[in-house]
């Protein structure tokens, strides 16, 4: 998408020098971590995945420079340039634009035709909308995302009483991303006043005032929302976890019993709106392994541990778990309660050791034991419980529970 | 608080007839459930806890009348009257006000002096702020919560271009709750036009236009925010879960080993900002049991199950788990690995049975086994893992994991 339409260089500036007082947290919100990764890395990833975005300038406070460089290295971000920002948002954006201007000599980082300005704390912008913003910026000189007003906006008297309400239909909330012809926004910042640098809130306003460019406004999806308060971090985490939990690869084994259990599980998971891909073993299925980050591995014997090790090796080689944790749920089918007791004591330690080892590589390994019953209703109920446990493990991705042997 | 200041009858109207399209969910958001309870019940609870709020009129769509009556019954709400709403928000609020007018003959539900209008989907309003709104409404005739604008508000041209940005300091977002002298708002609704009923957005505006009352505006806390999108449900759930996880009661037992483990756990949990109250057994400690909803019970023998049953009995009699799930984590301290193996097989079934039984009463029972080690570093590490597991169980309140025997 956009490959043909965007035949000019596009860069992104992400101001991330704010202290994020409003979250009520010690860490600025762009550096708050979930799923082992700071929020800003999710935002960077979003832009990095878009082929026509050539470079991303991240503007940080002086004290965040080294931590930011570490984030870039740890998560293998390749399009990022880190620069130091100023004391206000507008000064930081200008620093980012200047870094792009300097790089005009650099053939790897050409001076862009269009620059997108976004917030580090809005990780969910999608390519389709960015394309709209970019093309409108190219054509009109400037463009910006808008959203309907959530609350009525009112004007107050100086004594704190209601003066009047605005007519909601005539106004919009101005959001990010915004797009500009590089020359339009760079010129606006070169010409604007100290007052603008200190107190101005809107790039769109500067482009209008100092470059005479009126921005095209485009309604964006609700996902553009900005992580502002502590509660928003929980919301962002839930969105990411949900998107990671949509599909699963079921490794059924080759025995009649494991295949039967596998097909029941498949039915249950699909009825809960998961996409399920079933394979009998991982051999020659490497491509499939890289299509999801959730695996259920069914076995009746200890042989499954070596298969798990093989899978983890594939993930390591391909860095499949670099950005998001991979979940493997080992399901151990025991044909009798006695078998269950024996197996548990034998294998628990091996599972714990392996779990702790693979966790280093961002693979979360859990085990669930299920005991076969000849009574259909009991068996049905056990499989239902197994389904619930697996769904919960995949959805929550709780690192504290790795290595546990749960009972369905 | 407010008992002396509020010496006049106050009622609340909660319009809850909306369909909540914006969440992207089939269920209107006020009826979405977390921790086994619909959102609207959390909002009702907030008002019910305030002694000077005498009655709460919940206005619902016709098809939600029976479900709403069930919610009132299930969660023992005592101040609530359920009435049917109209086709728009304003018609529903008017229905709520009319229900209060009719009740003027009813000595139990007197016609209020002040009525607070709130949203069913803003569960986190606090008493202190409601007191401000109520007293301002009594004095000025009308009052409303405001918040600073989160985004810049802009006016658009008819072609979709930027016309101008509003100066952020002069405007505010109008939020809920709002308070009114009953006569002021009732009169406004009696006089307002069909157009207002259909398209009006603000009660404050109607009070100004039809009763000549300009509302006093009071800045509220960020917690006033409205559950609008699906992600907000995750945010609301995380706020409630966090507030439930702040304190824990540690039942140490009387043996030297369990007391030693208890004091280590206490230290760990306190260093993670939990308030910990330690008791040696539950006897004659009923009052303490009702001060928190999180319990850790340490024992070396199976005797703990009967103690758990006793606790659950207290919770049932006092309805302590009616509104929020109570968590009990049984910690089983084993002095050797062999003891651990034997205990596991013996007791697992009893624990599973008890867990499933007490879950009916909203008590979540989990077990964690920890094996004593004479090597100080190993023991230290096990206790650290135990702490993590306990914190995770308390924070997540995951019903799927009840009855599991986890290993520290």
From TrEMBL, chains A, B:
Its EC number is 2.7.7.40. Coiled coil: none annotated. The keyword Thylakoid does not apply. Residues 247-386 form the D-ribitol-5-phosphate cytidylyltransferase C-terminal domain. It is found in: Cytoplasm, Cytosol. The keyword Ribosomal protein does not apply. Keywords: Cytoplasm, Nucleotidyltransferase, Transferase. GO terms for molecular function: D-ribitol-5-phosphate cytidylyltransferase activity. Pfam families: IspD, ISPD_C. Pathway: Protein modification; protein glycosylation. One of its GO terms (biological process) is protein O-linked glycosylation via mannose. Gene3D superfamilies: Spore Coat Polysaccharide Biosynthesis Protein SpsA, Chain A. GO terms for cellular component: cytosol. It is an enzyme of class 2 (transferase). It catalyses: D-ribose 5-phosphate + CTP + H(+) = CDP-D-ribose + diphosphate; D-ribitol 5-phosphate + CTP + H(+) = CDP-L-ribitol + diphosphate; D-ribulose 5-phosphate + CTP + H(+) = CDP-D-ribulose + diphosphate. CDD domains: CDP-ME_synthetase. PANTHER family: D-RIBITOL-5-PHOSPHATE CYTIDYLYLTRANSFERASE. Homodimer. Cytidylyltransferase required for protein O-linked mannosylation. Catalyzes the formation of CDP-ribitol nucleotide sugar from D-ribitol 5-phosphate. CDP-ribitol is a substrate of FKTN during the biosynthesis of the phosphorylated O-mannosyl trisaccharide (N-acetylgalactosamine-beta-3-N-acetylglucosamine-beta-4-(phosphate-6-)mannose), a carbohydrate structure present in alpha-dystroglycan (DAG1), which is required for binding laminin G-like domain-containing extracellular proteins with high affinity. This is D-ribitol-5-phosphate cytidylyltransferase. It comes from Hemibagrus wyckioides.
């Amino acid at each position: 998408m956009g490959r043909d339409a965007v035949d000019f260089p596009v860069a992104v500036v992400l101001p991330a020098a704010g202290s994020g007082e409003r979250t009520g947290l010690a860490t600025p919100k762009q550096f708050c971590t979930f799923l082992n990764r700071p929020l800003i890395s999710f935002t960077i990833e979003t832009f990095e995945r878009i082929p026509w975005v050539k470079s991303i300038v991240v503007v940080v406070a002086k004290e965040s420079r080294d931590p930011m460089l570490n984030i870039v290295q740890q998560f293998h971000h390749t399009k990022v340039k880190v620069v130091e920002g100023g004391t206000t948002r507008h000064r930081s954006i200008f620093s980012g634009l200047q870094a792009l201007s300097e790089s005009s000599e650099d053939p790897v980082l050409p001076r862009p035709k269009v620059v997108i300005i976004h917030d580090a704390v809005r990780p969910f912008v999608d390519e389709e909308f960015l394309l709209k913003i970019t093309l409108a910026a190219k054509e009109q000189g400037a463009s910006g995302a808008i959203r309907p007003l959530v609350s009525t906006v009112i004007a107050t008297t100086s004594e704190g009483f209601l003066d009047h309400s605005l007519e909601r239909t005539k106004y919009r909330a101005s959001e990010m991303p915004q797009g500009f012809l590089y020359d339009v926004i760079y010129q606006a910042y070169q010409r604007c006043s100290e007052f603008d640098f200190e107190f101005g809130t809107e790039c769109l306003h500067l482009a209008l005032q100092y470059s005479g460019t009126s921005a095209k406004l485009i309604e964006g999806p609700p996902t553009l929302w900005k992580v502002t308060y502590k509660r928003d971090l929980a919301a962002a985490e839930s969105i990411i976890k949900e998107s990671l939990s949509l599909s699963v690869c079921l490794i059924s084994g080759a025995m009649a019993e494991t295949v039967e259990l596998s097909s029941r599980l498949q039915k249950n998971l699909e009825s809960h709106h998961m996409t399920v891909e079933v394979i009998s073993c991982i051999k020659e299925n490497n491509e499939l392994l890289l299509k999801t980050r959730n695996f259920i591995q069914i076995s009746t014997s200890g042989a499954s541990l070596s298969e798990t090790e093989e899978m983890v090796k594939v993930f390591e080689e391909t860095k499949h778990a670099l950005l998001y944790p991979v979940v493997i749920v080992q399901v151990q089918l025991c044909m009798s309660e006695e078998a269950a007791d024996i197996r548990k004591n034998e294998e628990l330690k091996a599972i714990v050791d392996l779990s702790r080892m693979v966790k280093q590589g961002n693979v979360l390994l859990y085990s669930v034991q299920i005991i076969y019953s000849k009574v259909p209703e009991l068996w049905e109920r056990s499989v239902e419980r197994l389904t619930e446990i697996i769904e919960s493990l995949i959805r929550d991705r709780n690192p504290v529970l790795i290595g546990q042997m749960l009972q369905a």
